[in-house]
Design goal:
Length: 212
């Protein structure tokens, strides 16, 4: 697999934060995550005003960070993400047309997949990382099994990853963690707590990566 612009960022900060329909200001959510040390943040395309947020935040994020579009399930959403200036896209599903679109436009992509066949197909189509989803339904040991035949495919564990199981997902083979609701404040009083959780996820992921 060719080198991706995402690879050095993931190696340094192996957490992808997912901002999905937050109850508080989504721009502030993104800024809070970057301030906490997260370097890859996706805003899901089903978030109200997602395209406007992506377009308005093209500048002003850390130089070593990227803001992308998530829940890019089809070509229409991929086109919208590209038009807003999203730096990468993430999908919950395997749509080979979306992967081809991303490759044709030089847009890094992390497609969702679950089965070995889907994971291999996503990687063969040109995925920068394959988002194994839902990770909690499969468990950390699933990644250990995948690493037998798929040692070179970059994998991200997403869905149900928490502070208790994060270390095992990385130790058993995930290269990074996709984290959503636990990083997103439920109220304006929640930002500091969520920033602390983000820093804790980063610490766990980095330490687990070193122990592999």
């Amino acid at each position: 697999m060719t080198t991706s612009p995402l690879h050095p960022i993931v190696r340094d900060a192996p957490v992808v934060a997912i901002v999905r329909r937050p109850l508080v200001d989504p721009v502030r959510c993104v800024e809070n995550l970057f301030e906490a040390g997260i370097r890859l943040v996706e805003i899901t395309m089903d978030t109200p005003g997602a395209t406007e947020i992506l377009a308005s935040m093209r500048s002003g994020i850390p130089s070593n960070a990227l803001l992308g579009a998530g829940t890019v399930t089809d070509i229409a959403r991929a086109e919208a993400a590209l038009a807003t200036g999203a730096s990468f896209i993430v999908t919950p599903n395997l749509n080979l047309d979306v992967i081809r679109f991303a490759r044709d436009h030089g847009l890094p992509i992390m497609p969702g997949a679950m089965t070995p066949t889907e994971i291999f197909s996503a990687a063969a189509a040109g995925a920068d990382y394959v988002k194994v989803f839902p990770a909690s339904a499969l468990g950390p040991a699933y990644f250990r099994e995948l690493r037998g035949p798929f040692a070179e495919i970059p994998l991200i564990a997403t869905g149900g990853v928490n502070l208790k199981n994060a270390h095992e997902f990385i130790r058993f083979g995930a290269d990074a963690l996709g984290i959503g609701s636990s990083l997103i404040p439920k109220s304006n009083d929640d930002f500091n707590r969520c920033a602390e959780i983000a820093r804790e996820f980063l610490k766990i992921a980095r330490e687990a990566s070193k122990s592999r």
